[in-house]
UniProtKB/TrEMBL annotation:
It comes from Streptomyces griseocarneus. CDD domains: SDR_c (cd05233). This is SDR family oxidoreductase. InterPro entries: NAD(P)-bd_dom_sf (IPR036291), SDR_fam (IPR002347). The lineage of its organism: Bacteria, Bacillati, Actinomycetota, Actinomycetes, Kitasatosporales. It holds the Pfam family adh_short.
């Protein structure tokens, strides 16, 4: 399995699942363009990847709540490359709360902006580079919270709204861009554990049996599988279910 000739943009790459994605795809040989809310966070992940001997890695600041920052990020990427083969919309704020009144107005606005508007504007501003590729894929980490009728025990209503916005956007985008050869791939995982360090031995020892919660590695494997299929194979979405009712989520919000 090799992505040695792919150029990939990953948002939210400064920590947790985005950091794991960055290490995984860099390890497969892809040239990775890492975005995080602060340049320092993106640079930390970049430094780790460089230390592992992968030289094709770039770091950028991109505040998904700020349209001007998104435009500046896309412009900076365009100065480094003439195409993007894969965009992974991973960055989005998680908001927890027992009821609507539990979050401030600012937290609600930030959650909607990062997950909803941010995803749309990043895709919009990078679309010219994606259309310059002969195998463009847009991958969006939505959530089970974006599935109609699904319920999460801790998610705030604003988080649901942001994830439903992502789902509606990716559905429309898939329809619009399919004639141009762009595959729009959405993932709808429940909570999954991305707390393990991808650089540690603990990462490879993650339990992945039928009675275990969904692992971050399994979600990454789905993305890898989808983007490496021939262009006649279009996997539009991944929906996840537990093999056993005893397999419950542990940490990272889906």
């Amino acid at each position: 399995m090799s992505l040695i000739d792919r150029r990939m943009v990953i948002t939210g790459a400064g920590r947790d699942f985005g950091r794991a994605l960055a290490h995984h795809f860099a390890g497969l040989g892809a040239e990775v363009f890492l975005a995080a809310r602060t340049l320092e966070a993106a640079e930390r992940t970049r430094a780790e990847i460089l230390d592992r001997g992968h030289e094709k890695v770039h770091a950028f600041a991109c505040d998904l709540t700020d349209p001007a920052a998104i435009r500046a990020f896309a412009k900076a990427v365009a100065q480094c490359t003439d195409r993007v083969d894969v965009l992974v919309n991973n960055g989005a704020r998680w908001l927890e709360g027992p009821d609507l009144l539990s979050a401030s107005d600012e937290d609600v606005a930030d959650t909607l902006a990062s997950g909803g508007t941010g995803t749309i504007l990043v895709t919009k501003n990078l679309l010219p580079l994606l259309l310059a590729s002969d195998r463009p894929d847009v991958v969006t980490m939505v959530s089970i919270c974006g599935v109609p009728g699904a319920h999460h025990p801790r998610a705030h209503e604003a988080y649901y709204a942001a994830k439903h916005a992502q789902r509606g956007f990716t559905e429309a985008l898939s329809h619009r861009l399919r004639p141009q050869g762009v595959r729009v791939i959405s993932l709808f995982p429940p909570d999954f554990d991305s707390s393990r360090d991808p650089l540690s031995t603990e990462w490879s020892a993650t339990p992945r049996g039928a009675h275990d919660p969904l692992a971050a590695q399994s979600v990454i494997d789905c993305i890898s599988f989808a983007i490496q299929q021939p262009r006649d194979c279009y996997i539009n979405a991944f929906h996840f279910e537990a093999m056993s009712t005893s397999a419950t989520a542990t940490s990272t919000s889906g």
